[in-house]
Structure prediction request, 347 residues.
Amino acid sequence: MLGLWLIVMLLILGRVLRMPGRVTLTMIAVLWAGMLILQLTLPGSSAARAVGGNAAGWLVLGAVVALVVAYRRLLAMLRRRAAPPPADPVQDAGLSDAELDRYARHLVLRQIGGSGQTRLKSARVLVVGAGGLGSPVCLYLAAAGVGHVTLADDDTVSLSNLQRQVIFRDELRGEPKTYAAAEAMLKLNPHIDVTPLVRRISEDDRDLIADYDLVIDGTDSFKGRASINRACVAAGVPLIWGSIAQWEGQVTLFHPALGGPCMACLFRNPPVHDAPCAEAGVVGALPGVIGSMMALEAIKHLTGAGQGLRGRMMLFDGLYGESRMIEVARDPACPVCGTQPLAPGAA
Ligand SMILES: [Zn+2]
Prediction:
């Protein structure tokens, strides 16, 4: 009865290799059909005798197995019909009908869905700098439904800002940037809270920063960035960091508490050519590219979607349309994060 043994071996193989039941069943059906054809075409041959049985026997066996399989499928179908429908995760997400409509394109994304959108709604984000990078960051965070955004900047809107800071309008010249940007964000999405903060963020703002899930730095001076980095490291809050100059930009996520570097691990001293946009110049659409990437990384970080930029930095060269990713590592001798212990469970 080699035939029966072969069937048993296929069943065991399917279990051991954890093959889908449908695959195992198909292989057995092919084997059964082969043995049946053998019995029908060459009855009494040495091969048919080795397989065992006869055509009628294999036909009966096939019919019995087919009946059992059909019966089990019927039972499963009846159970599915009798079971209550699964709870709709979107309905459970605490979103109003208007929000369900507004965020419909997020809700259909497998990586965000209702639970991710709820996380965005309850998230608290501090955006530092309402300039070229801050403009797309603020607009996309507002549009995405990030529930609580605080925007810190001590500057006012000027004519030379409008070449790239697309959140402002010409008639807002002279207005504090944070108020002008907050108004634009609320006009875009009235379902969020925006808090304008007309001042800079310094190293002393550790307690303020500790109240947020994420900080996004879109400022443009090395000294200011270094102090924001120190405050974020002290508070243990991740920092999405982007910078632009002329035609080039870079973006990453600093989070030494989870094993990634901080800004001081990579940039201990100001770069030789450190000059703000006012002196070095910057092409108008470049902050749109880098700022949008920062907003995208923020959405990913807050929803847990995909792979973030911790330990990696994306470099973009707009003049030649090139981008590349480099690995960046935490420096154990870093004067800012070198002594910070890893968070429990951090790699
Ligand atoms: Zn560091």
User: Anything to note?
Assistant: The first helix runs from residue 2 to 16.
